[in-house]
């Protein structure tokens, strides 16, 4: 299942390599803090390009031009002869106040257009794209004083303050070890609201609660994908990586000044999103484990709608770890919430897998048996048979339980191999697309060869830690990301919402991603 012909020519390999680098740079620029130099609001595109080259050269380890001159071929589009004719076009640079603009998650737009949104259900933190006349057609500048990002793995623990000039969180959460401002850097000690003494110790304690061997949460490769809801600056996800677990760290662009930008600058997988009214952009049965530590979500609202969305996303036998006062406090209100929440998850057929101190871990049933044994009329109901649990783009959440497919019900689980074998093992849901195991294996082999060639071509300019955040803009089955497994990178696999929804194959391989319309 290739996404383009491979004729072996050096020219096409070079073009492909440039596309990979462009995609990576674009991801850092839009999501993880750009690697471009700072610009004043009146700067020309040519000057912006020169700054880009200087900082880009530094990032890739190349020496800058000693005379300050810009290579004409890299600063502008040129017209060539024959088939290579390119029409020159330049784009203006947005002024500095738009350095953190996220077009469809722009709270200023919501206020300016007086959108009538229900704040009580977080609708204002969901995607609301501007009309055509209000869209920007300019290059987003980085913050003033932006520096080349600190490389992974050092970036897990510290970033340049200039790259994300927000220190509010450091003061607000100073007693919880979220982050600390130290001179020109922001340091992340690994703490969180619930785990002041470090995410690593907290993760090990959860593994111990579940009796996993060696207090390792990956459970010998059976637990690979995690959803961390209300993730803060993503320290929970950061410390899972050393256990071969990859987390989708989720948080909204709220009053905490874009926590996700901190996560991406650190080199940690993260995504801007909220449990509001729409389904999260992930297929059903994507995660083995969900986590909420003091995430301040009312799980009881709207007939348990948000908890049922987590249920849709969890695999058979998946876990939900909940660290919150309701799990241990003895005051009247917390006891009421705990009682009602226990009743709700009981009707959803979840069981308490472990409970200790301030944390409870529930486990989803491995089969449909419990659902079938419930009393008639029990709520929440099962979803209708015509509901597609993998339809997510712009689809409202539904207050119903998504039953398992016949395959998963018979298998009493997802049928996935432990990590890392699942990366190259044909996932059971291939059959949903009519794909054969042979097609999957050939696609995996094809992209392994291509990535090896990309890396060879780029090797004069990059080292083992040059790249970190990568986006595959049309990921298909995720074979490009699979081929990068031995590199110190992570890949945001994007599946266009108007094509085959192969994102579930990507998650079944132990990778992560999202769907998008590139609007």
Automatic annotation (TrEMBL):
Keywords: Glycoprotein, Golgi apparatus, Membrane, Methyltransferase, Signal-anchor, Transferase, Transmembrane, Transmembrane helix. Its EC number is 2.1.1.-. It is an enzyme of class 2 (transferase). Its main location: Golgi. It is a single-pass type II membrane protein. GO terms for molecular function: methyltransferase activity. The keyword Iron-sulfur does not apply. The chain crosses the membrane at residues 12-31. GO terms for cellular component: endosome; Golgi membrane; trans-Golgi network. It is found in: Golgi apparatus membrane; Membrane. InterPro entries: Put_SAM_MeTrfase (IPR004159), SAM-dependent_MTases_sf (IPR029063). Pfam families: Methyltransf_29. GO terms for biological process: methylation. The keyword Methyltransferase applies. Residues 59-88 are annotated as: Disordered. Belongs to the methyltransferase superfamily. This is Methyltransferase. The lineage of its organism: Eukaryota, Viridiplantae, Streptophyta, Embryophyta, Tracheophyta.
